[in-house]
Give the backbone structure.
Amino acid sequence: MRNKGEFLFTSESVSEGHPDKVADRISDTVVDAFLGADPYARVACETLVTTNRIVLAGETRGPDTLTAEHLAHLARLAVHDIGYDQEGFSWRKAKVEVHLHAQSADIAVGVDAAGNKDEGAGDQGIMFGYACTETEALMPAPIFYAHLILRRISELRRAGDAQAAGLEPDAKSQVTLKYVDGKPVGAESVVVSIQHQEGMTQDRVRELLTPIVTAALPAGWMPSDQKFYVNPTGNFVIGGPDGDCGLTGRKIIVDTYGGAAPHGGGAFSGKDPTKVDRSAAYACRYLAKNVVAAGLAERCTLQVSYAIGVSQPLSVYVDMDGTAHDVDQLKLERVLRELMDLSPRGIREHLQLNRPIYAVTSAFGHFGRTPDPDLGTFTWEKTDLVPALKSAFGR
């Protein structure tokens, strides 16, 4: 967002029960199953969910113990954890089909390390990372608060809290913030659409959501009642995969920066970390976040590009959007490549990505989350490069 004047900017989020997110969760559950059995397994798993049906398809390479029956069982457990046991979509009743087959030998030859050849990228493509000073998480404020609203609703629903009584898993939020001189100053409007039990009035749904949304936003940011939209179309009883088909990878803007930064176009969920669509996007976020956390710039966008089978990126580009604090861009690009090996193997090892850490990423965004040292999740959110970056630029 380069506008320095007064403007509005909007981002949306979707809950763990949104059909596309149900598909993402199942695909990442499959990734975790394979990496848990073999850290170097290969997975490209797509999931489709609709009325009482779950279909898995794609390519894998891993232990034979991960049978179709076991993967179908894991898919049901994922749906159970999200909270679906409804007439039109139930973890118990849904038919699960598994159509996973062996990875292409042609792709494997290009990606695998052999002799003097390092592991190559699993595909060509461009990946972006971004960070800014709008929130403590160094994320754009609209997507940060859109996620936070839904995450708090989910926590209350899962805990059986009376504040979420009658609310179901499927939900969407949309936050429009007002910016003055490039900084967010308040919410112009907030939209929340949430599935609820039969018989609940819209007044009751609004009554439940108002304090949750108010608490999620900074003090004084809650918009007027007229600009707080709750279930604008009325009843929302039929939801989740029963109300709309869901597919893996259809929420890539929700997963990243809410439209505030570029996106290379590749989805994350269902892919093991040899796929640079995922691992390199994580690396770009990691580097951009460390640049901003080190005080080198207020905003940082980082792009890398790869060719299938080639280990090192074809390009590394950094844009600080005119906010750099006496930092030479070319030097920064060189320093970042010295601090982190951006080959697929280097990224995986640096961020410790060959572990079953992905199911938790499938809802509420892959970025702006808190690293968990015990579980090893969200390692790309660490700011451990800050001392080296400060030293390199005399800070």
